[in-house]
Amino acid sequence: xxxxxxxxxxxxxxxxxxxxxxxxxxxxxxxxxxxxxxxxxxxxxxxxxxxxxxxxxxxxxxxxxxxxxxxx
Length: 72
Description:
Layout: H1 2-10, H2 13-30, H3 35-51, H4 53-61
């Protein structure tokens, strides 16, 4: 839901992915799940964020392409 909402509003796929990962990390902390599940979600979320390092730099610079827009 977060990913779809952010994508619909901002049309930036990388921003949607990063916020989705952060949301998953935040939500798993609130649910009563076994520790291995929690660790898997947290590790996966961190992995997604780390992989988007270049995208984060472009987002901060304001040059990240939007969905349907060609890359610079």
